[in-house]
Amino acid sequence: EDRLARDMRPPMPTTGWSLLLLAAPTISIHRAGPLFPARSLHVQLTSTQQASISKSHCVPPICPPVTRTQSANTAQRAVRHTAPRMRIDQDVERWLTDNVGAVSLSRPLGGSGWASFKRYEVEGADRSFFVKTSSRPCDIMFLGEALGLRAMHASKSVRIPEVLHYGDGDSGGSFIVMEFLQLSGRADAKLFGRKMAMMHLATPLAEEAQQGKFGFDVPNTIGGTAQPNAWSDDWVAFFREQRIGHQVRLASDSRISKAWKLALQTTDDLHKLFDGISVKPSVLHGDLWSGNIASTGGEPTIFDPATYYGHHEAEWGMSWCASLGPSFWEGYRELIPKDPGFADRAVLYELYHKLNHYNMFGGGYYTDSLGLLGQLARLGDKKLEDVAL
């Protein structure tokens, strides 16, 4: 846990990340890559934060010079996509008007390769609304996110954006309507730790999880990677097959496959890592890194999840990129003490995310993944060199 508590923030991959200062006082942190749809986090800034960024950050252009041919192609694509985008916007306004009130203002908040974001003001409403729209169907784009947010929201612990609606548009495309949260930097770290522990201890919303099963109502995504969530009575089997095994198959790499096979052999198919502890289903955010953590009105908040019901320790697989400090762990451990073997299982849970990053980004995550597989193999008193890699 001491290792997880260190502020380890590796530089983001050089391919696929950009920081944009949008036309409203908003930062857009945008991720894109060859194997997954892009994702963006949009954060409303205070005037002080705007001034700080404008003074200290030089945001380079992210696009190469555009040729006349490229400009023409871009214009043609814009014409093709304008009508569907306008239709889905009309569907959003119709839903808001029918269910909340007349729309008085809509403000674009940028977008990504897979969705567009807007803030809506509605007459007579005491809050604003954050809406994502896409040209793709809801079951692909927003179903997993909506159900995940609702599962966490039901825990009544850490602040979760409330989902008001999600579904397909009348003329194609889909959208999700959430409450708009004015986000700022992290608040009280110890409070955040306690709130996360409360979420992990809460009675699960899903009946299957209440009965002791692991998984989720629907498949979803982790980053841009498909994440299977079929219900299972056995946590070890679930994580072995639907988490690590799934990522190993996606990697389709002989060295990774052989290292994984050895790790399974030396750990009795991972069961050795769970000797002496009881694992119960907790609702997990599933992708808890710094970009998905903020505060609103002084309350810790998390968003953009890859939710499922699993072992609470699996939440910390992204701790190497989450900056969870000693105060956080102090608050968390007040409610959930550390179980024996925590450090060994942390290797397993980090491996899932490192493999996923390798499948999305490539690069150094390959070496990281092999290193973690080696650590798992050595837990069984064997070395990775015992097989020809």
UniProtKB/TrEMBL annotation:
Signal peptide boundaries: none
GO molecular function: protein-ribulosamine 3-kinase activity
EC supergroup of this enzyme: transferase
Enzyme Commission number, as recorded: 2.7.1.172
Pfam families assigned to the protein according to its UniProt record, in alphabetical order: Fructosamin_kin
Catalytic reaction equation(s): N(6)-D-ribulosyl-L-lysyl-[protein] + ATP = N(6)-(3-O-phospho-D-ribulosyl)-L-lysyl-[protein] + ADP + H(+)
Highest taxon above the source species: Eukaryota
Protein name as annotated: protein-ribulosamine 3-kinase
Organism: Chrysotila carterae (Marine alga)
